[in-house]
């Protein structure tokens, strides 16, 4: 060993440690409730009693990291259900029944269905094994010292029997009228809230038509309508309603983070190359086809705010590895009116 004075391992602070530092004057009571996956409910009563005597409950749930069966999430640790491991859902439901506001915090390796907690939690904070500084970050979000600005990289399922799914699914994968099971997620890909609100207005398109070898530009104004600073994430999704090969209902083709003080506005412009609409055709070559495209400026894959239609014109055009893969965003102060 080159550094024998350094012990093996990393000292990771628990969320209790970081919350104690974040709220030095608070009286924090910790009750185990249950283990990650042991199904033990002997501590349930103590946890509920502590909840009833508290002003707020922070329910910390999730996974134990591991490999090949030594954890509940990690390589070789598959799950046959997207319910929380062990008896965690029973604990969460009991805490919700306590009558005290519950903030559900997830330290997990996969998205879990949360049952009634989706609508009954005072707030939900999702983290995916956040690393050595993760509990410090969560404490800062819970205290309000930091405005959260993360967005979901996956969809959170509504029910535990949902198969791993993606917002990129074809239309049949996203319609509830072809099945008695509604596939709509509880929270869609790209979803995320913060401590302020934003208004999206004044959508403009530079051209209603563009050649299959050109580009077009959209612009919108984003305004922070709340009382504190925050970051909005403007996401651009492409919907191709008619193509020679079945396409996903929508594809994320670009995004930008817009940091705004309370009351501040920003004009956001996005230039979209026609290449972005390319797909692998029936002959195995990448092609841009003429026809209508729907551009959805959205806060998530399930929350489109502004929509525009642009028609690509001219012949179908094959593209190679030099194609432009992403939409390009720019920002400038919005004009005052």
Structure description:
- There is one protein chain.
- The chain has 337 residues and is of the alpha+beta class.
- It has two domains: 15-146, Glycoside hydrolase family 3 C-terminal domain (Rossmann fold), CATH 3.40.50.1700; 198-333, Immunoglobulins (Immunoglobulin-like, Sandwich).
- It has helices at residues 15-22, 44-52, 88-97, 117-120, 134-143, and strands at 57-62, 102-107, 123-127, 198-205, 209-211, 215-224, 230-239, 251-260, 265-273, 279-280, 286-288, 291-300, 303-313, 317-318, 328-333.
- It has a five-stranded mixed beta sheet with strand order 5-13-12-7-8, with no helix packed on it.
- Helix 3 links the parallel strand 1 (57-62) and strand 2 (102-107).
- The mean pLDDT is 93.
Characteristic key phrases:
337 residues; alpha+beta; Rossmann fold; Immunoglobulin-like; five-stranded mixed β-sheet; four-stranded antiparallel β-sheet; hydrolase
Give a brief outline of the structure.
The chain has 337 residues and is α+β, with helices and mostly antiparallel strands.
Topology:
Blueprint: H1 15-22, H2 44-52, E1 57-62, H3 88-97, E2 102-107, H4 117-120, E3 123-127, H5 134-143, E4 198-205, E5 209-211, E6 215-224, E7 230-239, E8 251-260, E9 265-273, E10 279-280, E11 286-288, E12 291-300, E13 303-313, E14 317-318, E15 328-333
Parallel strand pairs: 1-2, 2-3, 5-13
Antiparallel strand pairs: 4-6, 6-9, 7-8, 7-12, 9-15, 10-11, 11-14, 12-13
Helix pairs in contact: 1-5
* Domain unit count: 2
CATH architecture of the largest domain: Sandwich
Strand and helix order:
HHEHEHEHEEEEEEEEEEEE
Looking across the biggest beta sheet, what order are the strands in?
Answer: 5-13-12-7-8
Considering DSSP H and I runs of 4 or more, what fraction of the residues is helical?
10-25%
The CATH first-level class of the largest domain comes to Mainly Beta
Between the first and last Cα atoms, what is the distance in angstroms?
A: 66 Å
Instruction: Describe the largest sheet.
Output: 5 strands, mixed
Helix/strand-derived category reads: alpha+beta
Contiguous runs where pLDDT drops below 50 for at least 5 residues: none
């Amino acid at each position: 060993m080159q550094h024998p004075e350094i012990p093996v391992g990393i000292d990771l602070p628990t969320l209790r440690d970081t919350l104690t530092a974040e709220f030095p004057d608070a009286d924090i009571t910790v009750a185990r409730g249950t283990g990650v996956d042991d199904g033990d409910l002997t501590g349930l009563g103590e946890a509920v009693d502590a909840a009833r005597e508290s002003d707020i409950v922070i329910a910390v749930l999730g996974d134990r990291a591991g490999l090949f069966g030594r954890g509940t999430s990690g390589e070789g640790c598959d799950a046959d259900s997207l319910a929380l491991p062990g008896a965690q859902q029973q604990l969460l439901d009991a805490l919700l029944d306590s009558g005290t506001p519950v903030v559900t915090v997830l330290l997990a390796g996969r998205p879990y269905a949360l049952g009634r907690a989706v609508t009954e939690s005072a707030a939900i904070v999702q983290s995916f094994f956040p690393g050595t500084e993760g509990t410090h970050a969560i404490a800062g979000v819970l205290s309000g010292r930091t405005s959260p600005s993360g967005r979901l990289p996956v969809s959170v399922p509504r029910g535990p029997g949902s198969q791993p799914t993606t917002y990129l699914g074809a239309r049949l994968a996203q319609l509830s009228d072809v099945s008695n099971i509604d596939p709509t997620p509880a929270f869609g890909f790209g979803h995320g809230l913060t401590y302020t609100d934003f208004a999206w207005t004044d959508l403009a398109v530079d051209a209603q038509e563009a050649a299959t070898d050109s580009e077009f530009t959209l612009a919108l104004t984003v305004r922070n309508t709340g009382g504190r600073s925050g970051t909005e994430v403007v996401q651009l999704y492409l919907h191709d309603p008619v193509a020679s090969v079945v396409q996903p209902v929508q594809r994320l083709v670009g995004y930008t983070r817009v940091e705004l003080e309370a009351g501040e506005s920003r004009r956001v412009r996005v230039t979209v190359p026609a290449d972005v609409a390319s797909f692998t055709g029936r002959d195995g070559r990448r092609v841009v086809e003429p026809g209508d495209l729907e551009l959805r400026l959205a806060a998530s894959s399930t929350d489109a705010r502004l929509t525009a239609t642009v028609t690509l014109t001219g012949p179908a055009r094959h593209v190679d590895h030099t194609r432009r893969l992403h939409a390009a965003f720019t920002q400038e102060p919005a004009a005052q009116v």
